[in-house]
Design a protein that fits this description.
CATH class of one domain: Alpha Beta
CATH architecture of one domain: 2-Layer Sandwich
Order of helices and strands: EEHEHEH
Number of strands: 4
Structural class: alpha/beta
Helix content: 25-40%
Radius of gyration: 13 Å
Strand order of the largest sheet: 1-2-3-4
Distance between the termini: 31 Å
Shape: globular
CATH superfamily of one domain: STAS domain
Largest sheet: 4 strands, mixed
Strand content: 15-25%
CATH topology of one domain: Transcription Regulator spoIIAA
């Protein structure tokens, strides 16, 4: 299966956006890491659009969690633009970050809902 690399674009309303698409997992995490490093290295605020993700696994969740912590430690912001679509939401539910209703299981997991002060 071919994986499409993340596409970056600038959007004034949300800062710098990184659009993720395709089946993201252990085989694509290195490429995604490079894209996130580049975006966070150049922009103080990066918003991820995961609406075109067709598959995901725990490796992607781990990468996004680590990238969020690193961004925060460097005074930068990493957000999700929308609530996660079904593929990512399924993994987040399976690992206990989101409940079946899509709400976070803990207050610090609000990141995964895509509701961090952004208009949908």
């Amino acid at each position: 299966m071919r994986v499409h690399p993340p596409e970056c674009k600038m959007t004034d309303a949300i800062g710098h956006a990184v659009v993720l698409s395709g089946d993201l997992g252990i085989r694509t995490v290195a490429e995604l890491l490079q894209q996130l490093r580049a975006a966070l290295g150049e922009h103080r605020s990066v918003t991820l659009d995961c609406s075109a993700v067709t598959g995901a696994d725990i490796a992607v969740v781990q990468l996004l969690a680590a990238a969020r912590r690193t961004a925060a430690a460097e005074g930068r912001t990493l957000r999700l633009r929308y609530p996660p679509g079904a593929p990512l939401a399924t993994v987040l539910t399976q690992v206990g970050l989101l409940g079946a209703d899509g709400d976070p299981k803990a207050p610090h997991d609000e990141f995964w809902t895509g509701r961090q002060g952004l208009a949908a």
